[in-house]
Design a protein that fits this description.
The protein is built from five helices and seven strands; from the N terminus they run αββαββαβααββ. It is of the alpha/beta class and 199 residues long. It has a single domain, classed as Rossmann fold (3-Layer(aba) Sandwich), CATH 3.40.50.150. Strand 4, helix 3 and strand 5 form a beta-alpha-beta unit. One of its GO terms (biological process) is methylation.
Length: 199
């Protein structure tokens, strides 16, 4: 990835984060507890929301060193212990049955092998662990979905490999994780997903 993307990401996302995304992130993360794994923590945009007293610690994986560097200040300011790891979602550096909760927000679109990442999440999280996702997905409306398909090749080049048309919800349906609740935003472009590791 080019060095410019981590530098502009927070600025580009700020209008969305100030409004609805902030509320969505806070509501989702408030459902996490115990030892939490965050996949693709990026610049640490979620870290201020880890305030739930039921959270013991957060282990955050982020493969991009420039993004991880931008997260350092948020880690220092957090009231919850946060440890950052330079690791990919497809190869997590943790033992089996380690985590009580897993959080991933706006990251599965960029993971090269999302099914492998889901396998790893199942491996390192406990049976019954809470899986909390906030993602954009391929839209159900056919015309809009075809627009996503058409834009994705260019979008991937500009936005760090982001698949604008990836259907993360459908991929999750192919795992052993049990989807409990889904909320839709912006006509189905964004979803929050609550699931349980049913291994």
């Amino acid at each position: 990835m080019g060095k410019w993307f981590p530098r502009i990401y927070d600025t580009a996302m700020k209008p969305l984060e100030r409004n609805r995304f902030k509320k969505v992130r806070k509501g989702l993360i408030n459902k996490a507890g115990g030892r939490v794994l965050e996949i693709g923590s990026g610049s640490g945009v979620n870290f201020p929301y880890y305030t739930n007293k039921n959270i013991d610690q957060v282990d955050a994986v982020e493969p991009n060193p420039l993004m991880a560097e931008r997260a350092r200040n948020s880690i220092k300011l957090s009231t919850i212990p946060i440890q950052s790891y330079a690791a990919k979602a497809e190869k997590l550096p943790f033992e089996e049955n380690t985590f009580d909760s897993v959080v991933a927000t706006l990251v599965f679109c960029t993971i090269p092998d999302p099914m492998r990442a889901f396998d790893e999440i199942q491996r390192v999280s406990k049976a019954g662990a809470t899986i909390l996702l906030f993602e954009h997905v391929r839209m159900e409306q056919e015309t809009l979905a075809k627009m996503q398909d058409a834009l994705t090749p260019l979008w991937k080049k500009v936005c760090d490999g982001c698949h604008l048309n990836r259907d993360t919800l459908e991929l999750l349906n192919q795992t052993q994780m049990d989807i409990k609740h889904v909320d839709y935003y912006y006509k189905g472009l964004f979803v929050t997903i609550e699931a349980i590791n049913d291994k």
